[in-house]
């Protein structure tokens, strides 16, 4: 129960709702317990009439009618309170589930990139859905059924002991056995349903992938192979489901068997005691039969609740492990920082913590506010890493990075990131309208801002061609943009917020050189006064930059302006000549 203590703050938050739920539960159960006593007294009235103690039939009828009215009244009021019981306690558990999901989600947002590298997306999803769901079962149903059982048990046993102590002892003998068996059964059901879930998720991942990759499957003509694989998976999944149904099917027969057993004990022992004169009336046997039936469910839930609490404890443990993690990239100051855009790298080295790859080795360069730097180099030479370090997605291992002469880790992290417009190598767009995808960079942007940004990214004309224009929905169930269009929407998103620092990571690779030329021309206007870094494989993107650096295996092998680099032998000049020839040929 140690891990579940995390939920106590939520219980406290909803203490009034919870308390009213507890009271309502107790009241609901009390009304339920009127029935056995009333049935018992009805049977007694009939018995007394048969024995001649009551001689007037009208008295019998009146007594029975009153009892029936009480039973119906108690059932109606009990029913209303049972409804309210669910409305309070189960609702509280839904509120707690909502809060806990938000808490986990906010923690996900807080954590740094390395956290996402070391945890699989599936795991992150299941913490926030399945594990939170299991914790909810503890916060709602488990508590509700526990109070339910406790109230019923205490009051029913008191009433039963009062009228026939020995019979009570015999009657409750099978109940702990029932509770234990239900506990074992619930655990087995849980184990098997977890396996079913695993297979279900394998099936849905497989199906999802085969839908997304349908063009590859069709073009390779491997439909039959895919069908066969699906068949194997679904057969296995069916077997697991059948295994689960087998144990689930035991649940009710077991309950009915044990209720039957208790009934037999009541009738046999109760009957014997009645004959021997140890019980004063037949009504006792009648009401005991009802008590047994009333107690069976709550007793069964003791076993169920035990296994729910165990599961919730395990789930909450996994959730707590995530909640306890601290982001590796910390915001070291709450003071606001205004960023001007002067960037300096001094002898910076960086090794990725997860792969131990030394991506940068002793990099130094400086950029004044408003200057443009182009970074070129072979694939894997460390270009994107330089941009990631400016956004402080990672902290460096050696050397120093300063922004406006302040160490980067002493700037307010949110202010730093807000002053950066970053266009990643793989443009990521949300399944939302084009307008919202662009506005993502600036919440309060006007339509005019959106259009201007799209124009500068040279994607306005493309967007206008869609029948719904800027309201076109992208992604699943929406339009799929071409690689170049995605890149340009992503550029529009970065420039709309007019940031102090613009980082373009090879984001013109999917557009033709003519469009590239146009975008670069627009960007030179947009980026006026802003520090800009363009990572590229093309000389055309670098030629107008104030400075160029060429990286190779994490080191700077050339630096200077376009002109100076063209005048010296090396990677830059070779690339220039190669791309010049390609252009001439095309
Ligand atoms: N997130 C990461 N985690 C671990 N290693 C990484 C990560 N990103 C890059 N690397 C490694 O760091 C090195 C530099 O990668 P980087 O992406 O900076 O190169 P790049 O020059 O931008 O390459 P490209 O031109 O292909 O985009 C590579 O060896 C790469 O495998």
Automatic annotation (TrEMBL):
Residues 21-311 form the ABC transmembrane type-1 domain. The chain crosses the membrane at residues 16-34, 64-84, 142-161, 167-185, 247-269, 289-309. It is found in: Cell membrane. Gene3D superfamilies: ABC transporter type 1, transmembrane domain (1.20.1560.10), P-loop containing nucleotide triphosphate hydrolases (3.40.50.300). It comes from the Bacteria. Residues 343-578 form the ABC transporter domain. It is a multi-pass membrane protein. GO terms for molecular function: ATP binding. CDD domains: ABC_6TM_TmrB_like. Its main location: membrane. Keywords: ATP-binding, Membrane, Nucleotide-binding, Transmembrane, Transmembrane helix. This is ABC transporter ATP-binding protein.
